[in-house]
Specification:
Number of domains: 2
Strand order of the largest sheet: 2-1-3-4-5
CATH class of the largest domain: Alpha Beta
Strand content: 5-15%
CATH topology of the largest domain: Rossmann fold
Order of helices and strands: EHEHEHEEHHHHH
Shape: globular
CATH superfamily of the largest domain: Response regulator
Largest sheet: 5 strands, parallel
Number of helices: 8
Structural class: alpha/beta
Length: about 180
């Protein structure tokens, strides 16, 4: 967490109008920084950020490319794709904690950021469970089961998710219903 009492958020968005609007909203509850390119994100990023909202469709380097670089710098941070792009099967290998479609209304952006930052308090396995669950949920909503069955990475995700689900039953039951993925195991 940053030096102030507020949690810190880095927003990486190339559309300056949208970025400035989201930063204004986020600043009501968080210390929010905004950058407009992948290069700026890599230059400003440090271990003090609690949440990174990352546009997947940055022009010079997309979010899929810079996410692993940022995660290697700070594994404790929560990383969320904030994008106009529908999820693709690449989501099965993308190590993001959530995937939010733009446009996002103010209330949803703030409540989602709050829920995601709350994950910083959770043990690593529970954070992994929530991240995998969200990505499985998105993939299952987007693609037919027959197609997902052919994706080895998806199968690995589902198997790991089931394993974590059985290990973490008591912790999962304590969570707010809004935090849980909408999936069947």
């Amino acid at each position: 967490m940053s030096q102030s009492s507020k949690h810190s958020v880095l927003l990486v968005e190339d559309n300056e109008r949208i970025a400035d609007m989201y930063q204004k909203w986020l600043s009501k509850k968080f210390d929010a920084d905004v950058v407009y390119s992948a290069e700026e994100a890599m230059n400003i990023f440090n271990r003090d950020y609690d949440l990174v909202l990352l546009d997947r469709d940055l022009p010079e380097k997309n979010g899929d490319e810079i996410l692993p670089v940022l995660r290697a710098e700070n594994e404790d941070c929560v990383y969320t794709m904030l994008t106009a792009t529908d999820p693709s099967e690449a989501l099965s290998t993308l190590k993001c904690d959530d995937y939010i479609r733009k446009p996002v209304p103010e209330e949803k952006l703030l409540s989602t950021a709050k829920l995601l930052i709350k994950r910083l308090e959770y043990p690593d396995e529970l954070r992994e469970y929530l991240s995998l669950g969200r990505r499985v949920e998105l993939l299952e909503d987007k693609f037919p089961e027959s197609r997902l069955e052919q994706n080895e990475e998806y199968d690995n995700m589902v198997n790991r998710l089931a394993e974590l689900h059985s290990e973490l039953q008591s912790e999962i039951q304590k969570l707010d219903r809004r935090e849980l993925p909408n999936i069947e195991l």
